[in-house]
């Protein structure tokens, strides 16, 4: 046995982590790191273009070397081999030298180009051979991993771009065009995940906020069988979501199906608000409608407004569409004239997946209708619904939410790949603990920078967009407090924030305009990283002073004028006195200041701007970039325990 082990060891093949591959982008202007495994003690020779580097493998076969600094360019070929085994060399081709950015976070960073606004046009025009993506596959582990589960470098074109991060793609495209260098994106994302999952165990143990939960995972049976079972559960869930079970699409869509025992529901609405609660599974909706004679013999158009999640739509038993995460933004579909019954009621059925509390047909009601092009019939009103008509979803353990599990498997294996910096879009999953995010977010930034050992690498991030129902009165907000925690993180060195307070949608946590998000991140990179002379962000609160019955707000405007986005009066400000009760305020632009007041508050002491889940606010600079939400008070918030 010992002899066999010895033979296996001495005949070990040289290998590289999966992040190295054909078509990759390596970071310019730094000593380029390269590492891997081989025969213990072997002399490793690596050649990149005309450069050569050597090193010796340690007793475990691990080795690391660095190439000298390269300017942007390529393509190059990389060749790595053991000195005694030149015929067993690894050869990688089509390598470019440029700028590499790590894109990470939850679903708004993961959201794909094919799910973004104008997806068809964007995909058709995606021809950027010097932009490359490496998408790290999902993986969760309780121990540090030496390599990722899988992934490969892909050239950005119309066939590959649709599944790339939309934010990262639009960021990379602008950087490539503005800086005229190859750009590589390493995308490591997972929707719905908290920041703790992306932070190392060692860093989490340094804070009383996270120490207890991190140590608690040591007592859990997070063995490989559990993790595999969790992954297999998701395989089964998506099988149910994408494939109607037990002929459900034939039975519950039929015009003569007896739905007398189904419950009524008012549409448009979110299903969870109607007695379904936190249910996860497939829900069926049905509605019968009579159409006027004027619709006879015509192709009709149905608009479902804003359906949430994955759904299928049926008309008189025939499938009209199957929406899988993305579709045309209007969610409008054609019903052939031959499928329409004029003398009888027509049956509409919608099969919708309820996941993560979503599912339903969202407002507004006037976007839910059927039309012949001349007149329309509203589909709003009473519908019927029923759950549990198909097999239930298997239990999901959601280990990806646990502390450090994504750092272990989706970040640690990438270290110390040479990068230019990070772009980050996350925070929705930490909104309920927004006050703690003041500490957790800087912890992650410090953690990653220390481990990469490339100094204070630029860390650019997106502030949460506006979302949820708009409130009629000033109120407290978890999302506003999370945005404040993000703004406070700008005190960390070499950080930049793209404000997205005007880009959200009230009924969609994944707003479609990822183009502007990526552009704003790239503006910050152009100014902060590439030292271009440009205005990269909107007005930011600097300080304030009390005047007679008013408060004057001073901004850091970057030399840009204060304006309103729509040309109307300034909106979004609230003001309070010592009673801490806020009222909507009048606000006037006075040069580079805003003067805020209200007839309801004789002696104001505090002002807030865009302080809501989904604020109505319109203050911008002359470049159209929005003012960053802020408050002048430090009163205890709803997430400060």
From TrEMBL:
GO MF entry, a single one: sialate O-acetylesterase activity
Domain Sialate O-acetylesterase intervals: 99-212, 418-522
Entry keyword set: Hydrolase
UniProt GO BP: carbohydrate metabolic process
Keyword Hydrolase in annotation: yes
InterPro entries from the UniProt entry: Galactose-bd-like_sf, SASA, SGNH_hydro_sf, SIAE
PANTHER family (UniProt xref): SIALATE O-ACETYLESTERASE
Protein name (database record): Sialate O-acetylesterase domain-containing protein
Organism: Draconibacterium sediminis
